[in-house]
Amino acid sequence: MRLILLGPPGAGKGTQAQILVQTYGIPQLSTGDMLRAAIAAKTPMGLEAKAIVDRGDLVSDAIVSGIISDRMDEPDCANGFILDGFPRTIAQADALTHMLDRKGLHLDAVIEIKAGADILVERIINRARESGGARADDNEEVLRKRLGVYEEQTAPLVKYYTERGLLKSVDGMQPIEEVTAAIRQALQ
Ligand code: AMP
Fold first, then answer.
1. Closest CA to 83 of 71, 74, 98
2. Which of 92, 135, 138, 152 is the most exposed place for a label (fewest CB within 10 A)?
3. β-pairing, 2-6 with 167-171?
4. Is 135 labeled as catalytic in the residue annotation?
5. Which of 114, 123, 135, 168 is catalytic?
6. What is the CATH number for 172?
């Protein structure tokens, strides 16, 4: 099973990805987690990405496409994976299409988790409070920036994947278990 989870920051992609990991026994590939790990380890890529991630902008398409392509070649991805936070632009979606073609793989579905801006702001502020400020980009100002970037650069992927017959949308405003049930149904 090869899936993309699409949705604005705070929609619940990470939470649902972790549940899908258990259900299907395939890994979650989160570009946000990979970038945060590179930043923490102060690798050259991390040093380049830090200021961009901290202000809520997007890291270059080439960087994230490269790390995702390498990650897909690892043995634990042999039976599939859940993409969380990638692709985020049309250029990344095109890069992914070519990458999968080259590797002889195909996508099974793109799950869009829909949620309104108000609930997203509330959820992210709570996440920041609960994590004790672990993420420099989880504050209201940067969040509003990330929501704007989503609307502008990532939302067009809904049309992109609808046209390719892959998009399935679920309502992300429901309780976690109900979102999970809706995703499970969409994948049947
Ligand atoms: P996330 O954890 O998915 O919310 O990502 C946190 C931050 O990492 C984003 O606000 C971006 O700065 C960066 N990032 C994550 N994934 C991507 C991507 N696919 N393309 C560009 N930047 C990304």
1. 71
2. 152
3. unpaired
4. yes
5. 135
6. 3.40.50.300
